[in-house]
Design a protein that fits this description.
single chain; two-stranded antiparallel ribbon
Amino acid sequence: MARVAGAPPRPAERLEGFSDAVFAIAITLLALDVRVVGFRPGHLGAAVGHLWPQLLAYAATFLIVGQVWASHHGMFRWIDRADHVLLLLDVGMLGCIALQPFPTSLVATALSRGTARDVALAVSLYSGLLFVGGVFYNGVWRYAARRGLLVDGLDPGRVRWQARRYGIGVLVYLVAAAVAFVSVPVAIGLDLALAVGYLIPSPNLRPRD
């Protein structure tokens, strides 16, 4: 059924629940690329050892996607209502999350048997998709703040501070996508450092009494 133009915003719980389901599926799909295929009897240990690119890519993406989910969950503590545009922005972000297993697999494959340029391109695509997802993520918060969809009583200064905090992630992902062609370790380090930094909870956005 088509969304009725001009319909009032609805409570955001359904959107958050749908988002949680997409995150859960995406983070589960990451593990499907970690498997041993066709090892010779007596050489299982070596076969498992050869999985280090898949395990590394899995661990990195699990951390990043898990952090984005935690931040998304925290963000929706402060979003009270959702309209059609907010829904589309969130779905755009979820589309990037659902696609993240693809560049994760590219990175693992490039590390396994690709050239240095293959690895750089794979990591750049990996960070680039995180950048696009970050743009949508920032759009959710900024749109909700501008359209009055946040819970009542929030400190406007802290709401703006939170927007700037989210914006840092977009810039870091963009830099990582570009830096990958110069230094893959630095690009991956930027992505992981951002995830670890965002694990620190945001402060209460309500004004102090």
